[in-house]
Amino acid sequence: MKTxxxxxxxxxxxIIQGGMHYVGFxxxxxxxxxxxxxxxxxxxxxxxxxxxxxxxARCREMxxxxxxxxxxxxxSVTPPDYPGxxxxxxxxxxxxxxxxxxxxxxxxxxLKENGVKVIHKCTSVRHxxxxxxxxxDAVSVDGFxxxxxxxxxxxxxxxxxxxxxxxxxxxxxxxxGMADGRSLVAALSLGAEGMNMGTRFxxxxxxxxxxxxxxxxxxxxxxxxxxxxxxxxxxxxxxxxPAVERLLExxxxxxxxxxxxxxxxxxxxxxxxxxxxxxxxxxxxxxGMVAGLIHDIPTCKELIDGIMRDAEAxxxxxxxxxxxx
Length: 325
Hints:
Distance between the termini: 26 Å
CATH topology of the domain at 4-208: TIM Barrel
CATH class of the domain at 4-208: Alpha Beta
Oligomer: single chain
Number of strands: 10
């Protein structure tokens, strides 16, 4: 299947594994890229630029296919060494970067000068248009269904994607609620050129996370996520657990006086304990509503091959059948 996204990134299938904290390691990215999608290493999971450089090199040993790096720009009093991370990306020969968080315009010139294609994660049409205006090559349009940060507009993909298609000239992929061949066909029909999956890729054999995490996703339904940090305008969709319930109780009790420090115990530094150690009640961790559509733990190749097989069957048989009828 050829789309503007497969042509832009030189990949076989229009499927991207988005950046995920303590999931986007070399093993994950290589498995997705080897299966014909675009695998992405998460830069800020690596504590220093030197560690990111090693992770990129490690990934290169596992695949000769295109890979990307996610670089999230966070508001911070003491920001990460972004120049160092950008340098590691360029020197590692990575030609695709997924940016997220704050406006990446400061970093686009040096990335462009080194032949790097940039896809920026956006949760609204206005942010997507800004990404286009500053020179991003593509955007990932993230609907309200998505795990992680869905923004503050609460617009689901059935509205957000066609609105993006009405406004954008650059290609975009759908993110949030994406799991299978039906998702891909729906995304294409609404104007996207592919799809970005996060939660679905965590529940794969190669995902370098504890088995407890994978089983929690398989066991969850579409009703089992919660929105936290809404009062702080830093909304995050997470899988419900006792820590999340405690967090929500604090939000309710403190109301407008809530500060990040009040909930730090449930959100700060919890990912290693969850993803590596499998302590599922350690805190809040990102998970999409799409968990309700995830019922197995395949290899990345099995997953992507199945998505493409099912998508092509839907297009060629089911949809064509309606026209014939």
